[in-house]
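Predict both folds.
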Amino acid sequence: GSETWLAGMTMNNLGEVGRERGEYAKAEALFNQALAILEKTGGPDDPSVAQVLSNLGMLYFNEGKLSRAEPPLQRAVAIREKALSPDHPDLAQAINNLAWVHAEGGDFGRAEPLLKRALAIQEKAFGPEHRDVGKYISNLGSLYYLQGRLAEAEPALRRALAIQEKARGTIHAD
C-alpha cells in the first residue's frame, strides 16, 4: 500500500543522494529497487515510475552512458505524456532530459525539436518571463552554440540572461 509506495520513493531519493555524491553504482541499485517497488504498487504507467526512470536516465547521462540513458528517459516522457496535461512542467523536464542525451550524442536534429517543445510547455505553464523559461531558452541557445549557429545562439542566450537577471537581480561577473 502507501507504505510500500513511500519506501519506493525514499529509495529513489536515496538514489538521488548517491548520484549527487558520484556513488553511481549505489544510486543505480537504489533506482532499480525503487522502480521495481513503484511498478508493482502503482503500475508501469504511474507518474512516480516516470520520476525514477528520469533519475535513472540522468544517472547514466552523468556517467556518459548515453545509449543506456535514452530508454528510461524515453519511457519517462511516454508515461508523463499519458499521465499529465500536455502543458505540465514535469513533462517539459522529461523532454528536456531526453533532448540533452541526443545533443550529447551529437544528434542535434533530434534534440532541437524536443528542446523547442519543452520550452513551449514552460512558456505556456509559466509565461514568457519566468526564470524556469529562461533556463529552457538558455538550453536552446546552448544547443545552437554547440552547433556553431552563433546568429541564433546569441539572441537566445541574451534573452535567457535578461530573464534570469530580472528574476534574481543583475548578475555581475566580479
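Second protein follows, with its predicted C-alpha cells after the sequence.
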Amino acid sequence: SVQSDSMAPTFDEGDLVFIRTEFEAHDLKVDDVITYEDFMVTDDGVITYYNTHRIVSIDKSSDTWRFVTKGDNPNATNDPRQILETEIYGVWTERSWSGFGSFVDGFTDFLKSGLGFFLFIVVPCLALLVYEVVKFMKIYAEYNVQKSKGDRVKLQEEALASARAQLEAEAQLK
C-alpha cells in the first residue's frame, strides 16, 4: 500500500496499488510507473522497502540499464539514486483501490499485536484441536459399539453351536 503522497494525484497515501511482476526491463519506457526495491541507512542498520515512482529517464549506455525515477507530486524532485533494472519488482497496472491500503496495513498491524495473534491464530487452532478431538471420540465410540455388537454376535453363535453340539450328543445317546 502507498505510504506517502509522493505520487499524488495519481494515487494517494493509503491506496492499494496493483503491479505486474512479469515484465521485461528492456520494455520499460519513460512515464511507466515502477515498483522497485530501495533502502535507507539508519543508526539501527539498513532498512529495505519498496517504492513506487514514475520513470523520468533511462540510461541505456551499459548492459545494465539504470532508471531515474520521481514521484508525481508537483513538489517532487528526481529520486537521489538511479535504479538498476535488477531492483525493479513490478510495473503498475494503472489499477488502485483508494484507501484500501490503510485497511490492509491496519489489519496487518492488528494481526501482529498480541490480541490479533490470539484471536486469529491461537483461537482457530484451539477450535480445530477441539473439533478433531470430538471427531476422534465419536469415531472411537462408534468403533467400540461395533466391536461390542460383533462380540455379542460371536457369543451368540458360540452358544448356538454349543447348544447344537449338546443336542446332537443327547440324540446320539438315545
